[in-house]
Amino acid sequence: MSKNQGNVIVVGAGLGGLTLALCLARAGFGVTVLEQAKVLGEVGAGVQISANGARVLYHLGLADALKAVAFTPERGEMRHWQTGETLSSRPLGKASEETYGFPYFHLHRADFHNVLAEALAREVPDAVHLGCNVTGFSQAGDGVTVTTEDGEMFQGDILVGCDGIHSIIRGQLFGPDAPRFTGCVAWRATVPVEALPKGHVRPVGSNWIGRGGHFVHYYVRRGELVNCVGIMEQDEWQAESWSNEGAIEQFLADFEDWHDDLKLLIHKAESCFRWGLFDREPMKKWSEGRVTLLGDACHPMLPFMAQGAVMAIEDAYTLAECLKAGTAGPETALKQYEDLRRERTATVQKMSRDNIQFFHNADLPNLLERMASHREAHLWLYSFDVTAQDFAS
Questions:
Q1: 188 backbone dihedrals φ, ψ, rounded to 5°
Q2: What domains, with CATH codes, occur in the chain?
Q3: CB 390: neighbour CB atoms within 10 A?
Q4: CB 358 within 8 A of CB 29
Q5: What gap in Å lies between CA 146 and CA 127, rounded to an integer?
Q6: What is the pLDDT of residues 6-33, one digit of tens each?
Q7: Of 19, 100, 102, 147, whose CA–CA distance to 380 is shortest?
């Protein structure tokens, strides 16, 4: 398949959708991205890109653009929720490049999204169609037709749902999913560094593990902002959206017994957001005919391994390469993509789920053993080379 032979329709212009579109364009495909928002952008604040994801982004020629907006942490730390004691530390920074060949980045999601959008616009200026609220699709033996709320129709050879946890494409393929409330509620906020005492936040990724919750903070946007995420166990929650605004006073109340350094971060935040964390079982199947899913649409994961965006990046590269090599036809290529990705993403989903108990019990008797296991998980994650897979079908 090439630009002269057909087109891949991508539903959703988030981080996964734009990465896929760029991978497809660089591989010689025609690509059409349908985004329901009227303005291209990204919500949320911080995102962590480990070496396994940076490998793909460097392959796409984005190294300089990323370095211009990212912060590169020296190391990752686990700290005690009340004393502030550093319980464990793992090197990042130069060590990530020396060990894995690629850096570890902390990015503001909007900055990262802009890097991807600008790269795609240079490659395919008219790829993204805004204000396209997709309502469904139909497929025949030789292609797929996507319909929007306004009655527009888009035709292509392949359809990829990159439309997140509430995916319309997944719903039509497999029906409604069954999210489970994890018993955890998340807070997020960003704090301007100029509002903090000098040196208040170390140049590292800090994870304060506690009792019934944990708190993560790190620099983004070249070190101009601190991204903060606090997780606290609670009895119930309804909304599953990270754009629900919360109250600073309630954020502070949830972390009332925690270290004063964290309470100062919350106090200095201009605003904050609060949302419930829901979990889903791994899907047994992602594709049907010429339609498949990518990223959160097929393997949404809790944020406790910082791998949600990275798994979507790995998906994007894998899918583009499977289609490129798919001499047996698109349906075979989509099956190969699934076979290459399902086990790894399901493993990361489980790792993320299991970390709730680890991060929320700083007094575990086997804490040092769990920390060692956590470091081994990072080694497995970051050393993976998605470009070394066998894509021949």
A1: -140, 150
A2: 7-72+101-178+281-356 (3.50.50.60)
A3: 9
A4: no
A5: 15
A6: 699 999 999 999 999 999 999 999 999 9
A7: 100
Give dist(CA 315, CA 359) in Å, integer. 27
Q: Which residues are catalytic?
A: 218
pLDDT classification of 270: cutoffs 50, 70, 90: confident
- Is 302:275 a contact under the CB 8 Å cutoff? no
CB burial class (10 A; 0-12, 13-18, 19+) of residue 177? middle
Identify the CA nearest to 326 among candidates 290, 283, 296: 290
Please report the DSSP string for 309-360 in residue order: HHHHHHHHHHHHHHHHH-TT-HHHHHHHHHHHHHHHHHHHHHHHHHHHHHHT
pLDDT digits (tens, 9 = 90+) for 333-386: 999 999 999 999 999 999 999 999 889 988 877 777 777 777 888 899 999 999
Residue 40, H or E segment: none
Question: What does the alpha-carbon distance between residue 347 and residue 370 come to, in Å, rounded to a whole number?
Answer: 17
- Distance from C-alpha of 259 to C-alpha of 56, rounded to nearest angstrom: 38
Q: Which two tokens stand for residue 341?
A: 């990705």
The number of residues in the chain equals 393
CA angle, 215 then 216 then 217, to 5°: 130
Nearest to 209 by CA among 47, 45, 77, 349: 77
Q: Is 348 helix (H, G, I), strand (E, B) or coil?
A: helix
Phi-psi region of 84 (alpha: psi -120 to 50; beta: other; left: phi over 0): left
pTM of the prediction?
0.95
